[in-house]
Every structure is written in C-alpha cells, then in structure tokens.
Amino acid sequence: MISLKDKTALITGGTKGIGLATTKLFLELGAKVIICARDVESLSREFPQVKAYKVDLSDKKLLNSFLDEISNDINKLDILVNNVGTNIRKPTLEAQDSDIETVFNLNVNTYWKLCKTLFPLLSKSNSGSIINVSSIASKTYVKSSSLIYAMSKGAVDRLTKFLAAEWGKNNIRVNSIHPWYIATPLVEEVLNDKEKVKEILNKTPLNRIGTTEEVANTIAFLASDLSSYITGVDLNVDGGVSL
Ligand SMILES: NC(=O)c1ccc[n+]([C@@H]2O[C@H](COP(=O)([O-])OP(=O)(O)OC[C@H]3O[C@@H](n4cnc5c(N)ncnc54)[C@H](OP(=O)(O)O)[C@@H]3O)[C@@H](O)[C@H]2O)c1
C-alpha cells in the first residue's frame, strides 16, 4: 500500500547506514531520489538512477553552492530527509570548543539551512514532508554517547516542533525520528565493544540492535501520504529502550 510514486526526495547522507537503507527503500517505493555525501562514487555505480551531489555539507561555501544547484535543478521537492550526522564521543570535561562547533555545524546548522532554503520547493509539493533524524540521545542519557551530541539532537527536536507548527499552513509536515543503537559505520566503535553491547542489550526490551532497514521503514511511513495527518511527532525507533 505504501507508495512514493511521483514524489521527489532528497536524502542527505544517503550513501551509508540509515541514509543508504532509506535510498534503497525509496527507490523500491517509486520515488525519484536525490542524495548528497562527501563520497558518492560507489552509490552512483550501484544506483545510476539516483541523482547524487558530491558535497561536504559542513563547508558553508560548498553547502551554499549545493543549495543553489539543487534549487536550479528541480521544480519541487516532496520529501526532505535530514539525515547527516556525526558524534565526537568524549567525556564532557575533555570536549573542546572545536568539537561542539563540528557537531553543531553538521547536526544542527545543515538541518536548519536545508529546511529554510528548500522551503520554496517543498511548499510547491502540496504534501511536503520533512523527516529530521534525531536520536534517542535527545531524550534520555546515553552513557556511551556525548553531551554535545545530545545537545545537538535536542536542537533538532526544537527545529522539528517549531517548523511543524509554523509550516502546517503550507502543507508541509515536519517530524523527527529517534533511533537507539542501529548497526552503521557511525557507531561501529561502540558496537565492536562486547561489554558495551551487553549493556545496550540489557536495557533494550526487544533485546537486539536495530537494523538500518527498520529505521528506513519508519522514515518511509512519515514520508508517505499514509501519515498525512501526522506532524510534529518525535517517533522513537528504539526497541523499547525509552521505557
Ligand atoms: N547509527 C545509530 O546508532 C544512530 C542512532 C541514533 C541516531 N542516529 C542518527 O542517524 C543519522 C545517520 O547516522 P548513520 O549511523 O547512518 O551514519 P553513517 O553510517 O556515518 O552515515 C552518515 C552519512 O552521512 C554522510 N556524511 C557524513 N558527513 C557528511 C558531510 N560532512 N557532508 C555530507 N555528507 C556527510 C556520509 O557519507 P560520506 O562519509 O561519504 O560523506 C554517510 O552517507 C545521523 O543523524 C545520526 O546521528 C544514528
């Protein structure tokens, strides 16, 4: 029943982890998919039908020219998946000013900038959907993460709720999803540590690490018209850990 036919979707960081699973699922569901990442070569080889922009979103100049380019290349945008993200795992007292700048620049500023700049294209959709990839860390203490990451995801949540309230009148829905540990390159270091995995599983009711496909399924639901009356929601994809 779920279909993204005739919809154009931009997925930031659509080449690895959660973004890659979302790219694959969106293609299966019939969407026209656009992605961006710093390295797009292998994705472009495997999925030549995907329009891929090679860009480092944390570089303000490159980000601006990417946004100019995409605004020239397409007439409307139906789905924006703000997915890029990074973490610098350090105890709070060891974190540097440069760490918070790096994390906020990618995890918060790019989300804000893409929402704001792509608003004219999203409002042409008449059923626009923005999905911001946050984290369970925005809501609860995650020992193996970091304060700066949790703060950045908290900011994503405020961005989501505020825009949902402001842009409902433009038929743009804005929701966030909140994964717990999902096996991707971003958390390889944590998931390679047997003790940490034991600790994670002990507090996860479903007693397993989530898959990128399970997160992609949630994103697809929020992107599709099946969720047409849902906006401003912060949906956990967490195996029940928040319980
Ligand atoms: N995995 C988890 O357990 C988990 C849990 C909660 C939330 N999340 C969130 O889920 C989102 C996706 O995470 P993931 O685990 O799938 O990460 P990932 O496997 O590291 O993939 C990140 C994607 O973003 C791209 N990217 C990274 N930095 C970029 C930059 N400066 N400019 C452009 N593209 C960039 C990467 O491609 P390139 O390296 O080629 O640029 C890649 O396609 C993030 O927002 C993360 O915070 C993840």
What's the arrangement of strands in the largest beta sheet? Answer: 3-2-1-4-5-6-7
Looking at the structure, the CATH topology is: Rossmann fold
Number of domains: 1
Rg on CA atoms, Å: 17 Å
CATH class: Alpha Beta
The total count of strands amounts to 7
Residues in helix, %: 40-55%
List low-confidence stretches. none
In N-to-C order, the SSE pattern is EHEHEHEHEHEHHHE
Q: Assign the structural class, choosing from mainly alpha, mainly beta, alpha/beta, alpha+beta, or little secondary structure.
A: alpha/beta
CATH architecture: 3-Layer(aba) Sandwich
What summary fits the major beta sheet?
7 strands, parallel
Report the CATH superfamily: NAD(P)-binding Rossmann-like Domain
Distance between the termini: 31 Å
Number of helices: 8
| Beta-strand percentage range | 15-25%
Bound molecules: NADP nicotinamide-adenine-dinucleotide phosphate
Which structural traits does this protein have?
alpha/beta, Rossmann fold, single chain, 8 helices, 7 strands, 43% helix, binds NADP nicotinamide-adenine-dinucleotide phosphate, 243 residues
Q: Any overview of this molecule?
A:
This protein has about 240 residues and is an alpha/beta fold. The protein has a single domain, classed as Rossmann fold (3-Layer(aba) Sandwich), CATH 3.40.50. The protein has eight helices and seven strands, in the order βαβαβαβαβαβαααβ. It has a seven-stranded parallel sheet with strand order 3-2-1-4-5-6-7, sandwiched between helices. Helix 1 links the parallel strand 1 and strand 2. Helix 1 crosses helix 8 and helix 4 runs parallel beside helix 5. The longest helix is centred in the middle third of the chain and has 27 residues. The radius of gyration is 17 Å and the shape is globular. The site of NADP nicotinamide-adenine-dinucleotide phosphate has 28 residues, from helix 1 and strand 2.
